[in-house]
Specification:
With about 425 residues, this protein is an alpha+beta fold. The relative contact order is 0.07.
Amino acid sequence: MNTPNYNNELDALLGELKQKKGIAAKTILEWIAHKKNVVYSPSTLSNYRAKGAEKKKKYDTLLDTVKEYAAHEIPPVVKKHKSKFAYFLNESFFIYYRTENDTSLNYEIHRAILNIGNSKNNIDILLPKDDADYQGFSTLLANSHLIFDLKTTETREKALRIIIPIPHSKTPEITIGQYSNLNSKGAIVSGCLVLELIKDKSKEHQPKTYKNTSSEYTKVPYLIRQFLKDSKKNRIKTTTGIFDYRELEKFLHIQKLKETDNKMKTGIFLSAPMGALDKEEYSSLWEEYIKLHSTILEVFPKPKYQICFLGKDAKAKEAFDNNILSMRKMLEKIKLLDKFILIYPKKVASSSLIELGVALALGKQCLVFVKTEEDLPYLLKNQHFKNLSVIVYDTTETILSLFKKLGMSIFDT
């Protein structure tokens, strides 16, 4: 019985594809790698030709795959990944920016127009007002950023450079970058900008300037206004990975949280179920809080520590009830201070427990003084929070002596 000549069959098939359809073996191997997730190299083919009988199973698999390829009426070709710059070709973008030295309350946001032609050397920017227009070219940097190098169209004297991060496989809805330029006095200026893809190409768009006091200011997309409205943010570091409005909204939210953290003061928010007590209980607890307030200030004097006790000036319960702050203002106070103390003398339904929950969720160091742990909700008395300490006390003097003895380390007990 004769052994089939596998080598000649594979060679014949590859030769036929090359001769009749102009398909090289390399193209077929690329398709196999893409379709079957199996990589064959030209050297692999040579190896199979030399040892076809020994590697019959692998050889047959390769031969069957090549036959599958040859069965296509129109031979498939794996599409090459196009250059990242290709996603910008023949596109236009709005460029929103704010002049760096514009720190006035009545400021302007400018909208220029970036037109990208069919090559990297076909770039032009139209600026608002009497500013000169620019032309130039682009360069792909580290396969992750585009740099636009431009000069004034007529004089070719002033230079403008823009750098933006770019996505992997699409034209971005927006992208945040930086610019550097020479102003009218010859000084180098720079700042942030936001590129927004112009989706409606049927309209003729013009460069514009929007004053923040004008009715047309709202025509600037809301999130772009939020990004550019604070001149202090104009020098924010160029971010990567912001290519649509949802990502920009998330970025702005994180920035707001960071600003809140930076504003946070070293201090204590004092809480108690004042509104849930009767007049006699209120008066007694108020006296305890005033003593605690004074003791903390003695141990940790201002301005190092800020103490917030919202009922400090409400000696009578009626005065407290008539001076209840809104929940929003209450939350702002809790956010600004890094520590929280609750005196909880008895089991009672009170918004002070909500305040404690907010403080715990915000990661504040929390301390609860309670007559008996059984009065606390399950999660509190079973120590489910790393930032919570619970201390059982008998009298106010116990609390005062602990503060005088331990200071701020009382939060670590």
